[in-house]
Amino acid sequence: MPERLLLPGVPDATVARLPVYLRVLGALSDRGTRTVSSDELAGLAGVGSAVVRRDLSHLGPTGTRGVGYDVEALAERVSHMLGLTHERAVVIVGAGNLGSALAGYAGFGSRGFRVSALLDTDPAVVGTPVGDLVVEDVAALEQVVARTGAAIGVITTPGPAAQSVCDRLVDAGIASILSFAPTTLSVPDGVDVRRVDLSVELAILAFHDSRRLPAELGLAAAGDAS
User: Fold this and answer.
1) What would the pLDDT profile of 130-174 be if each residue is shown by its tens digit?
2) Can you spell out the DSSP letters for 33-66?
């Protein structure tokens, strides 16, 4: 089956790696590094150099043979391809621990995202301050989306409430949704949903950890025998 394309001619896997390259380039820029080779960028991003070159080929000519990539220019090209060259407003639905933490995360601003609203259903939470925001009633979700011009919705509600919140976000004109809810969301064509399931990520880490244990135990046993 061919890869589904998020951008014309750009495979999903490449799109998923571009933010990693951007993060690495930002760190290099902060250290005053002006150029980086594909091998160096690959090592810092945790992928092969051939993958880096193939991914960056979608951006057009970006490097100079024998010199490498200009860090600032490449970061600008990647940002442009990802659509990060202008600010996008974000609304978060669910003002629990996770939603509040995301609302207060300063790193979004440097990547072109502005958390413009945080909403919840709990009367005890509505009206309370979280960072620079005041939690708003989710009953006003549609009005909040219209007022803020939000382009992205983030769902941090419990699973049972997530689908109805998703439906309302879509009806309000949100076509890009990031969900932390432990459930699969159904959306119409033309709406993109990215799901972050922390339990799945932890399970994957547990798998890799369990595969390391036998070797570690073997080394410990060998040390005891000596």
Assistant:
1) 989 999 999 999 999 999 999 999 999 999 999 999 999 999 999
2) --EE-HHHHHHHHTS-HHHHHHHHHTT-S-EETT
- With b for 16 or more beta-carbon neighbours within 10 A and e for fewer, the 36-48 pattern comes to bebebbbebbebe
- H-state helical runs in the chain: 12-30, 38-45, 49-57, 71-82, 97-103, 141-148, 159-171, 198-225
Q: For 94-116, give one letter per residue: b (16+ CB within 10 A) or e.
A: bbeebbbebbeeeebeeeebebb
What sign does the dihedral 100-145-148-177 (CA atoms) show? Answer: positive
Checking if the pLDDT of 213 tops 80, the result is no
By the 10 Å C-beta count (0-12 exposed, 13-18 middle, 19+ buried), 90 is classed as: buried
Nearest residue to 165 (alpha-carbon basis) of 89, 88, 90, 92:
92
Judged against a pLDDT cut of 60, whether residue 218 lies above it is answered with no
Place of tokens 């690959």: 42
C-alpha triplet 89, 170, 149: angle, nearest 5°: 25
How far, in Å, CA of 144 to CA of 124, rounded? Answer: 19
Q: Output the pTM of the full model.
A: 0.74
Question: Amino acid identity of 119?
Answer: L
CB count in 10 Å sphere of residue 183: 17
Q: Are strands 192-195 and 176-179 parallel, antiparallel or unpaired?
A: parallel
